[in-house]
Amino acid sequence: MQTREKKDALLERLAETFTNNNKVFVLVNVMIFISIPLLVLLRFRFGVDTDYAQIILFVFMFLFSLWQSKNIYFRLPQNSFDAKNKKMNFLIYYIYVPLLAPIAAILIVGLVGRMFVKNSNPQGITNISSNEIFISLVTDVLAGAEEIWRYSSILIIYLLLHYGFRKLSKKKNIKILSLILSFLLSSFLFGWMHTFAYSDGWINLDITIMIGLMGLCFATIMFITKRIWSAILTHIVFDVYTTFNSYDSSIVSSILIVTCLSISIVLLLTKRKGKAAINT
């Protein structure tokens, strides 16, 4: 019962962070929220070359996120699993989570996706050559900016629900429901936008569901860690894993083995230091 109350309080606190932002911050997020879908439509449905515009926008989004991340993104209490050591926190949120979370996301999406989707590879991902790998990796890094769009979309959708139903939104349960809807709608939009890149139609349910579920996993990582850059790095690593897997699957296996070994070593050393401190 207490755990549920804590979760509800955390969700309500998160909802409040969305309504306590200055107008400039909200306007920039509106611009980000609108710009990405617009560029996707122009490129894949109207044949407009938007590559340079997209790169400039993504760089701006990264810089904006760096500038605002400490002050704005998820002004919430520390996680219960936060370490006292800042270096350990850095390892957890910016190394281990990004390296391991994509595997968990793949398993979850694969398991849930099989229930609703006929084609397990709706994007039609194929093997790539060594000549294509560099371009793919650059694209993977830029794709991390999609997590900044995700935050913007959750924020804007929540504000629309909050002010659209102002009388109801004062109630705690309505705030939490609006927040959950914002996460779900944002993930749906994320999946739907990928329809234009991987199909000729205006809607492809297989793509929308599979990529939407993946987007929901990234949003959950953002919420759990309370760090947007943890989600950004997770998204980048996920795409890098996909690229390496299309080139040589043994690369991904090697990365995971090294990561698991390093985690074991760090935990072992931390435990020994703790015992040594107690003995002294």
TrEMBL record:
Pfam (any one): Rce1-like
CAAX prenyl protease 2/Lysostaphin resistance protein A-like domain span: 165-240
Record's keyword annotation contains Membrane: yes
MF terms (GO), sorted A to Z: endopeptidase activity
GO terms of biological process kind: CAAX-box protein maturation
Highest taxon of source: Bacteria
Residue spans crossing the bilayer: 24-46, 52-69, 90-112, 148-165, 177-196, 202-221, 228-244, 250-270
Protein keywords: Membrane, Transmembrane, Transmembrane helix
Protein name as it appears in the record: CAAX prenyl protease 2/Lysostaphin resistance protein A-like domain-containing protein
Organism: Paenibacillus polymyxa (Bacillus polymyxa)
Source lineage: Bacteria, Bacillati, Bacillota, Bacilli, Bacillales
